[in-house]
Design brief:
This protein is α+β, with helices and mostly antiparallel strands. The chain is built from 9 helices and 35 strands. The longest helix has 41 residues. 41% of the residues are buried.
Length: 648
């Protein structure tokens, strides 16, 4: 038995192919395992579900990235009828109902791409079947259908410039010389080699109202707080060249758009780098947004990015058309250099930073962004770098009162170690951690050591990213930070502290010894060998002090068992002496706790012994009085009163 419903591809490699919809329904998506697999980048892994019914084909969007449309409307669930265009991402397929006859003829002007000449509104693809489904299938209906087709044809002919021109006339697509994105850069075809970011909350979709030239462009419609990111195909790129990106953008209401270049790197497991233009807000029309960026070291490929974002209060839209990416002569020049270290800024103006040493990436994708979207279009944050010897001060302009610093510790640096300095001293971290009150971050070791210095304590968080770590820190509007590359002064200070610690241990001044090692770890942990010595010496001495306290505690327990006042006092004095030798350390704190325990137990014992002695002397006095020895009884009573204040 023939399936009642089917979909037909009208473009691309599968043009003309008709796919039946099983009576039990099916799924549509990009990944294998779907009944209907469509490999286009605009289609999500599991995009939609189709269910055949008597009243039509039920179409259910499965929270896809780029959405599903039926008869021009974006849907969550809808019923499609014969002749309706069903759009998955950018892929349009007409629905065929075998019970109603043949499919409608394919339109040469897509539904969303044919604006009316007088009002700029879309003239949809009109078919006899579309008209017939809303009324009786009569000769009158057929006449209306024929008239509708004629009107659509005239409108399309007029818009395409064949009816004498006018304000809404189509502008010819002009190729850009040297454009690396020559295939699909003006978004004319129904299928595209561009793709949307699946994790984004919105997407760029093909629209005839979003064009600068040709018949269509792309539009991202954004609710408050939503974001869309569109990615071009990758193209070859190499160090020693400069890439120039451009795109026509038109932002409306509370949305903004920008273009970026993503540089893909293959060596040392380094992640990609992104250079961004400034945000383009609502201007009332299209403007060309351009970006020039030198290709950073180790880049093997690149691609153009277009991002649209709306504020948290107002939604909006961003239109995109005529994108280009051109390779030109000119190498990326470092913004700062110290010895073998080179720091590059990316973007116009600079919005990101990357640090290399002898071509090896250490820090990548360092940028500062606003911590909140705000009510309107996004605000750009620009970075500046001021070199002071081996210290690179990084300034951030814009972004509001609350901002976020984000950077990636590349695998080469992470393998050398990751640690933070702050309240509580030096602390080593893995890929995932959180710490408050951080004043500095140490990356790598020895001569590859790099430090990130904050002028005020920050809350720092690390998450794994590839083979490296993504660090995020919250900054206020006045916070500043610097990248430190030279540690000669700090290493000299660390050597001085190490010498003082060794001398203090020889003199048995263990408190001073531990204090010197603690300061080295908290303020100058820049020499791996000295850090290891400090940690080992601290651990060894603290353990020795704790062993001594353990011996005192054993004596304390013996004194408690036998109720020996003098032994209690000896334990108290020994614990105090140990604490004094380890002054300022955790041993001193443990010794003080033990002294407190001994003092409390001794006081209790002395009170008990005091009462026992009073009771014993009273018994003696009573015995003497009963034996008619009043003089002796009086002497005992006098002693009780003088010694214990007890007259009875």
């Amino acid at each position: 038995m023939q399936d009642r419903y089917s979909l037909r591809f009208e473009s691309g490699e599968r043009k003309g192919e008709t796919v039946p919809i099983p009576a039990g329904g099916c799924t549509v998506g990009r990944r294998p395992g779907n009944t209907l697999q469509i490999t286009a980048g605009s289609v999500s892994g599991k995009h939609a579900e189709l269910r055949a019914g008597e009243g039509g084909l039920e179409v259910v969007d499965l929270s896809s990235t780029n959405g599903t449309r039926v008869a021009g409307n974006k849907i969550t669930t809808a019923t499609a009828a014969h002749g309706d265009q069903i759009v998955f991402g950018d892929i349009e397929l007409p629905l065929l109902d075998a019970s109603l006859g043949e499919a409608p003829a394919a339109s040469t002007v897509p539904a969303a791409a044919a604006p009316a000449a007088d009002a700029g509104e879309a003239v949809g693809h009109v078919s006899a079947q579309s008209v017939a489904k809303s009324g009786e299938r009569s000769r009158m209906g057929a006449g209306i259908a024929a008239l509708a087709i004629a009107v659509a044809g005239v409108a399309a002919w007029y818009v395409l410039g064949r009816g004498g021109g006018g304000a809404a006339a189509q502008v010819e697509v002009v190729p850009v010389a040297g454009n690396l994105l020559a295939d699909g850069y003006s978004f004319e075809g129904a299928e595209s080699s561009w793709s949307g970011l699946e994790s984004a909350s919105a997407a760029f979709l093909r629209s005839g109202d979003a064009r600068v030239s040709g018949t269509a462009g792309l539009r991202a419609e954004l609710a408050p707080g939503e974001r869309a990111l569109h990615l071009s195909p990758t193209v070859a790129a190499s160090e020693g060249r400069t890439l120039i990106a451009a795109a026509a953008l038109a932002a409306a209401d509370g949305a903004g758009g920008r273009v970026g270049i993503e540089f893909l790197r293959g060596a040392d497991g380094a992640g990609s780098l992104v250079a961004w233009s400034e945000w383009s807000g609502a201007t009332g029309g299209f403007e060309t947004v351009e970006l020039t960026a030198g290709v950073p070291p180790q880049t093997t490929a690149a691609r153009l990015l277009v991002e649209a974002r709306a504020g948290d209060v107002l939604g909006g839209s961003v239109d995109l058309d005529d994108a280009s990416l051109i390779s030109a002569a000119g190498a990326a020049r470092p913004a700062a250099q110290h010895g073998e270290f080179r720091l590059f800024t990316l973007g116009t103006p600079a919005g990101a930073v990357a640090l290399y040493k002898v071509g090896r990436p250490l820090i990548g994708d360092l940028f500062v962004a606003s911590a909140a979207n705000g009510s309107g279009p996004p605000v750009s944050v620009s970075l500046s770098v001021a070199s002071d010897g081996g210290r690179l001060a990084v300034g951030a302009e814009g972004g509001g009162a609350r901002r976020v610093l984000s950077l990636r510790v590349e695998p080469v640096a992470f393998e050398g170690g990751l640690a933070s300095i702050g309240e509580g001293g030096h602390r080593v971290h893995g890929a995932v951690f959180e710490r408050s009150g951080v004043r500095g971050v140490l990356l790598g070791k020895d001569r590859d050591l790099v430090a990130l210095r904050f002028d005020a304590p920050v809350d720092l968080r690390g998450v794994e990213e590839g083979g490296g770590v993504r660090l995020r820190a919250e900054l206020d509007s006045s916070s500043a930070f610097a990248i430190q590359l030279d540690f000669s002064g700090e290493r000299e200070q660390a050597n001085t502290l190490a010498y003082e610690a060794r001398q203090a241990e020889r003199a048995d001044d263990l408190g001073a010894c531990l204090a010197a090692w603690a300061r080295l770890l908290a303020e100058f942990p820049f020499e791996e060998a000295l850090v290891a010595e400090a940690e080992n010496a601290t651990g060894r001495l603290v353990q020795a002090g704790m062993v001594e306290l353990t011996e005192v505690r054993a004596e304390f327990e013996r004194a408690r068992f036998f109720r020996l006042v003098d032994l209690y006092r000896q334990c108290r004095d020994r614990a105090r002496a140990i604490g004094g030798r380890f002054e300022g350390s955790e041993v001193e704190a443990a010794a003080e706790r033990l002294v407190g325990e001994v003092h409390l137990a001794l006081g209790t014992l002395e009170t008990d012994l005091f009462q026992d002695e009073i009771a014993r002397l009273r018994a003696i006095r009573e015995m003497l009085a009963a034996s008619e020895s009043p003089r002796l009884a009086a002497e005992v009573g006098s002693y009780l009163e003088k010694r214990f204040g007890a007259s009875e």
